[in-house]
Design a protein that fits this description.
The chain is α+β, with helices and mostly antiparallel strands. 19% of the residues lie in helices and 25% in strands. The chain contains five helices and eight strands, in the order E-E-E-H-E-H-E-E-E-H-H-E-H. The chain starts with 50 loop residues before the first strand and ends in a 7-residue tail after the last helix.
Length: 220
């Protein structure tokens, strides 16, 4: 008998157990413009990013009787098409979320599925705050080592913006990555291709714009 499904607003891959208020990036636009070791707990970089990619599972998978499925259609179906992005248990991913600023754009990436890839765009609508699931003993992301007086984990709120004009599969992005490594290009060092298991990733503006431009091109 299958485990009883419990509805959750949001969750992420198991591998996701992966401040100045001024946004230094251009005004967001949906149109293209032309080891949990001590070291891992520190900020991964002093560089401030302003574009992001976040992964979630679009297909049902049960943990402790809870379906951790959360695809872009699930986000669209929520009130105001908005959800918290909880359950991040990787220090670098958490640190990236703590850098996120309201209004910044995020690619929604479907992972742990038959064909992983980028499906749409979200926007940050609430900056990092305490992830309540770390204190919930019934939650799959409960962390007994995190204390109320000194929480370890954060989350942000995201809002659906739109679907891409076409699905951008990981396989295609890998091909561009190889081309850019050989001849130069924005995806040469993109985390999506170099830190593939990280569930929250930073993108430079050039990387984001290049990936977005692919929706108007024929697949490779």
């Amino acid at each position: 008998m299958p485990p009883k499904k419990k509805v959750r607003k949001r969750t992420i891959n198991s591998d996701g157990n992966a401040e100045d208020k001024v946004d230094s990036c251009p005004k967001p636009s949906l149109k293209r413009k032309a080891s949990s070791s001590v070291e891992a707990s520190k900020e991964s970089s002093t560089e401030q990013y302003c574009r992001w990619l976040m992964k979630s599972e679009p297909e049902s998978r049960f943990q402790k009787g809870i379906d951790v499925k959360f695809g872009i259609e699930d986000l669209k179906a929520l009130p105001n098409q908005t959800s918290c992005w909880d359950g991040i248990r990787n220090y670098q991913a958490r640190n990236f979320m703590r850098q996120m600023k309201e209004g910044q754009l995020v690619f929604f990436y479907h992972s742990n599925c038959k064909e992983p890839g980028i499906v749409g765009i979200m926007k940050i609508v609430k900056e990092a705050y305490v992830d309540h699931t770390q204190f919930d003993k019934k939650d799959v992301h409960f962390d007994a080592s995190s204390k109320q007086e000194n929480p370890k984990w954060s989350m942000v709120d995201v809002q659906y913006q739109r679907m891409l004009k076409r699905f951008l599969p990981l396989a295609e992005l890998k091909q561009y990555h190889l081309q850019h490594r050989a001849k130069g290009g924005p995806l040469k060092d993109a985390m999506l291709l170099t830190r593939i298991r990280l569930s929250v990733q930073a993108l430079t503006t050039a990387q984001f714009d290049f990936i977005l431009s692919l929706e108007d091109q024929e697949p490779l």
